[in-house]
Automatic annotation (TrEMBL):
<keyword id="KW-0539">Nucleus</keyword>
<dbReference type="GO" id="GO:0005344">
    <property type="term" value="F:oxygen carrier activity"/>
</dbReference>
<dbReference type="InterPro" id="IPR000971">
    <property type="entry name" value="Globin"/>
</dbReference>
<comment type="subunit">
    <text>Monomeric.</text>
</comment>
<keyword id="KW-0561">Oxygen transport</keyword>
<dbReference type="GO" id="GO:0004784">
    <property type="term" value="F:superoxide dismutase activity"/>
</dbReference>
<keyword id="KW-0408">Iron</keyword>
<keyword id="KW-0963">Cytoplasm</keyword>
<dbReference type="GO" id="GO:0005506">
    <property type="term" value="F:iron ion binding"/>
</dbReference>
<keyword id="KW-0479">Metal-binding</keyword>
<dbReference type="InterPro" id="IPR012292">
    <property type="entry name" value="Globin/Proto"/>
</dbReference>
<keyword id="KW-0560">Oxidoreductase</keyword>
<dbReference type="InterPro" id="IPR009050">
    <property type="entry name" value="Globin-like_sf"/>
</dbReference>
<dbReference type="InterPro" id="IPR013314">
    <property type="entry name" value="Globin_lamprey/hagfish"/>
</dbReference>
<dbReference type="GO" id="GO:0020037">
    <property type="term" value="F:heme binding"/>
</dbReference>
<keyword id="KW-0813">Transport</keyword>
<dbReference type="GO" id="GO:0098809">
    <property type="term" value="F:nitrite reductase activity"/>
</dbReference>
Length: 176
């Protein structure tokens, strides 16, 4: 009888060092000055490359044209919310409890209210890293991207923890 291997959830998210926290905060400072535009760019690339993610948004789920998406008030609003949530995490990296509670709220809202597959968080963070490294190449070097990948890993860990808590099954194997 073959044993089924499932992704073991690690005990905790790998904590950032002080130096890594500083790298995140410094690089984010440049991004956040243009937070709405960057957020919109990230979401448009996300929805163009992963159109199944649009199903959760009534206003632009049928839009194909990126320029039309860009004019959507619902998309711009969500872009602001995403960027503000990341900003809250970045500003509170010194306070793991605060980060944990913010991400638990985000996770629960997406699980219960919006019924969003958790894998989209992982996909979105990949898209975000891509856009940041293209738009801010001088601040998002390979080293900086590695630290951000570590942070996004922790974000995903917290968010999926909230999904598990509310009874969402199969967090790791959700297919898009």
């Amino acid at each position: 009888i073959g044993e089924v291997q499932c992704d073991e959830r690690p005990e905790r998210a790998e904590p950032l060092s002080d130096a890594e926290r500083e790298i995140i905060q410094d690089s984010w400072g440049h991004v956040y000055k243009n937070c709405e535009d960057v957020g919109v760019s990230v979401l448009i690339r996300f929805f163009v490359n992963f159109p199944s993610a649009k199903q959760y948004f009534s206003q632009f789920q049928d839009m194909e044209d990126p320029e039309e998406m860009e004019r959507s008030s619902q998309l711009r609003h969500h872009a602001r919310r995403v960027m503000n949530a990341i900003n809250t995490v970045v500003e509170n990296l010194h306070d793991p409890e605060k980060v944990s509670s913010v991400l638990a709220l985000v996770g629960k809202a997406h699980a219960i209210k919006h019924q969003v597959e958790p894998i989209y968080f992982k996909i979105l963070s990949g898209v975000m890293l891509e856009v940041l490294s293209e738009d801010f190449p001088e601040f998002f070097t390979a080293e900086v991207q590695m630290v951000w990948a570590k942070l996004f890993g922790a974000v995903y860990w917290h968010v999926t923890g909230a999904y598990t808590e509310v009874g969402w099954l199969q967090v790791s194997s959700s297919a898009v």
